[in-house]
């Protein structure tokens, strides 16, 4: 069973999708999505991952950050601190819905960066999976394409309108900002063997697994979406169940 819901503080509601397993739950997982066009293309993969985890007895919550998707606000109101706060609200909602105190976080791309930061503030995170996390903001902006500024003072980045302040916040993103990450176990999954892309961060007590796979956050023109990387999905499910 899966159910759509709104949660979070009044006046700043977040939209989520709760995948409820049958029988006694084994664990609870929060999926932290990418942002911009990467969110759009990776949506299919995260839905498949949620379904596979649910079939293994896992409570899964997918959600939209504030200013994105069906959550409160628009794209010009997004910033990293607000999204870390959103992650805290999502973990709280998942704990209440599942009845389980330990929660796993799976963060893809920018979601990996945000999950690492949030895990330093949220107690009882069991496993933290950072899936090809964004670690260098300048490189990520290049991948998104050159930002286009408008006379209004807004900027188009990743197919969304954002503020100039947000672009500068992204540009300043560095691996050391993730060093506050804390979980019982941290795994960095790298599927893109691009030697031009900086190495993932080395976090205390973490390990890095390399598994070449299609990038679900990039468009496959034949299906107008991102490809589902089956081996990456399978490995994450095995880690968490």
CATH class: Alpha Beta
CATH superfamily: Alpha/Beta hydrolase fold, catalytic domain
Give me the CATH fold name.
Answer: Rossmann fold
Query: Helix fraction?
Result: 25-40%
Q: What's the count of strands?
A: 11
| Strand coverage percent | 15-25%
Mean pLDDT: 93
Question: How many separate domains make up the residues?
Answer: 1
What is the N-to-C succession of helices and strands? Answer: EEEHEHEHEHEEEHEEH
Structural class: alpha/beta
The geometry reads as globular
| Tally of individual helices | 6
Spatial gap, N to C terminus:
19 Å
Work out the radius of gyration: 17 Å
The largest beta-sheet arranges its strands as: 1-2-4-3-5-6-10-11
CATH architecture: 3-Layer(aba) Sandwich
- Main beta sheet: 8 strands, mixed
Low-confidence segments, given as residue ranges, are none
Features of the shown structure:
single chain, about 240 residues, alpha/beta, Rossmann fold, eight-stranded mixed β-sheet, 6 helices, 11 strands, about 30% helix
